[in-house]
Specification:
single chain; about 290 residues; mainly alpha; 10 helices; about 70% helix
Length: about 290
């Protein structure tokens, strides 16, 4: 795959470099988004330490990976279970409580589309570019599927069947969850609010008012929901530390990178690649000021 002689152009180097950049962005943006989620339910006076909090998270991830950290399947399953359960409740309540609006919203969207297509100042081309723009902004959703595709060599046998099943589950869950959240944004009229993520605004609006025997049940459900999002985002950053050095090792074997990047440590962790990924992620994170906007 990484052979020079079979290629008239350095395509392996280009694709490998693109993957490395992608993994660096995955680390920095996932950490920034996770920190944004964590601070969504904190008072505004604490938001000044968001940048330092993200820096601490990056440093902890870097140190854990240098020590050979590997995620526990049980831990991942528990966090994912909380994430799916809380989000299922939010989406179900939002959809069922606003079901009467769906027909009107769909009809309005169809009428607006027809009007824009007939407008000479807008037309099909402008709408197509808007669609492609929105699609590109949501491209980060593919990060998990890509990580699975790039890590098939560490999956249990039969590798192909395991990878196919994993990618099928991920694609279905991502499609349902992303589509459900977008629909709920429209149904509940979610708009950006300072210091909060859109998901936090949605969850607060849907379950925030809930109470039980005078206790703010909805508030704590919202906190748990957004906290589970933050933890999953930090674990998504971990995928960059896992995948990036492996790509570097493959490139280094055929001299696309210095050979020291191909060396495995005693803990089977590519230390040099991890350090470089961490340093690059720090630079990107600081360059964007710790903001998750991309």
């Amino acid at each position: 795959m990484w052979c020079r002689t079979s290629c008239s152009a350095p395509r392996p180097a280009l694709s490998g470099s693109a993957l490395i950049v992608d993994y660096v962005l995955t680390i920095s943006i996932s950490v920034a988004a996770g920190v944004d989620a964590l601070f969504s339910h904190m008072p505004a006076e604490f938001h000044g330490i968001k940048l330092w909090t993200g820096t601490l998270v990056l440093f902890v991830l870097l140190m854990l990976n240098l020590r050979g950290f590997r995620e526990s399947v049980g831990m991942l399953a528990a966090i994912l279970g909380v994430f799916l359960a809380t989000h299922a409740v939010v989406l179900a309540v939002a959809l069922l409580s606003n079901a009467s609006q769906i027909r009107g919203i769909v009809g309005g969207a169809q009428e607006s589309l027809r009007s824009d297509l007939a407008d000479p100042k807008i037309g099909f081309v402008a709408i197509l570019f808007l669609f492609l723009r929105g699609y590109s902004l949501g491209g980060g959703t593919y990060t998990g599927i890509e990580s699975v595709a790039n890590a098939t060599n560490i999956m249990r046998a039969p590798v192909v069947r395991t990878a196919k099943r994993t990618m099928l589950y991920m694609s279905i869950s991502l499609a349902v969850l992303a589509a459900g959240i977008l629909i709920c944004y429209v149904l509940t009229g979610v708009r950006p609010e300072p210091g909060k993520t859109l998901n936090s605004v949605l969850v607060d609006r849907v379950v925030g008012p809930w109470g039980f025997l005078g206790m703010p049940l909805g508030h704590w459900l919202a906190v748990v929901t957004i906290f589970s999002e933050a933890i999953l985002l930090f674990l998504a950053a971990q995928a960059g530390f896992t995948g990036g050095p492996r790509v570097m090792a493959g490139m280094a074997v055929d001299s696309w990178l210095p050979h020291r990047f191909a060396a495995l440590s005693e803990r089977l962790t590519m230390r040099n690649g991890i350090v470089l990924m961490g340093f690059a992620a720090f630079v990107v994170y600081y360059e964007m000021g710790g903001a998750s906007r991309s």
